[in-house]
Specification:
It contains eight helices and five strands, in the order αβααββααααββα. It is elongated, with a radius of gyration of 26 Å. It is mainly α.
């Protein structure tokens, strides 16, 4: 199969968010853009704009892997994947494909750890069985071991990527990707919004305290006046 890098990221995000944030699924275009550009659980970290996301969605729609829809009570267009219908893959298989689409080739151990939020696998044997089921349908393949790792790595077969030469890669080392500019800006805006909301709540409480204090002063003055009468 020949999905572009953008199509792979979009499809992976739809698979992931269906499981991790079901209340927000299907996703709006903006939510999908933020999901594609987030710095956590992504390799590589990217900075796609809305036009790139829209183009990828249209190509996936023509393949019948994505459908445009609308959320309940919302006029904004939303998007959902159709892999369960089109490829008849089970939830566990979808979870592994999502992680492979979002983070590239990985070992069964990495896949088990990184798919916990999507589908909890009982043990590595179940992960291996699921990978073999996907491999039998040409959706994933084992590509050997990377220097510094004991387990074989697996990659999805949905993209147009060049085959990896694992022997030529440097020894494996876990790393934390740097956040993309778009995701960092969105996080900053959210932090400002949270701070503004907190300041607003504090101001409202202070106003209520002042009002209650005024009522108390009025009541005390009235009691003093009535007592002296």
């Amino acid at each position: 199969m020949d999905l572009t890098a953008q199509e792979q990221r979009v499809l992976g995000c739809l698979l992931e968010k269906q499981r991790t944030t079901p209340d927000q699924y299907p996703l709006t275009l903006n939510s999908l853009r933020l999901a594609c550009n987030q710095s956590t659980n992504r390799d590589p970290v990217v900075d796609y704009d809305e036009e790139q996301i829209r183009t990828a969605l249209e190509r996936l729609r023509r393949r019948r892997w994505v459908r445009f829809t609308s959320g309940h009570g919302s006029r904004a267009a939303k998007y959902r994947h159709l892999l369960a219908e089109e490829l008849a893959i089970a939830p566990g298989e979808q979870a592994l494909l999502a992680v492979l689409l979002l983070r590239g080739p990985q070992t069964p151990g990495e896949l088990k750890t990184r798919s916990e939020r999507l589908a909890g696998f009982a043990d590595l044997a179940v992960v291996g069985e699921t990978l073999e089921q996907l491999a039998a349908r040409g959706l994933v393949r084992g590509i050997g071991r990377r220097p510094g790792q004991k387990e074989e790595r697996w990659q999805h077969m949905l993209g147009d990527d060049e085959p990896l030469d694992l022997a030529a890669l440097p020894p494996y080392q876990e790393r934390t990707p740097e956040p993309s500019a778009a995701y960092a800006a969105a996080e900053a805006d959210a932090e400002v919004s949270r701070a503004g909301s907190l300041a607003g709540r504090i101001a409202a409480v202070e106003a209520q305290v002042r009002e209650l204090r005024g009522d108390l002063d009025t009541l005390l003055a009235r009691l003093e006046r009535d007592g002296g009468a």
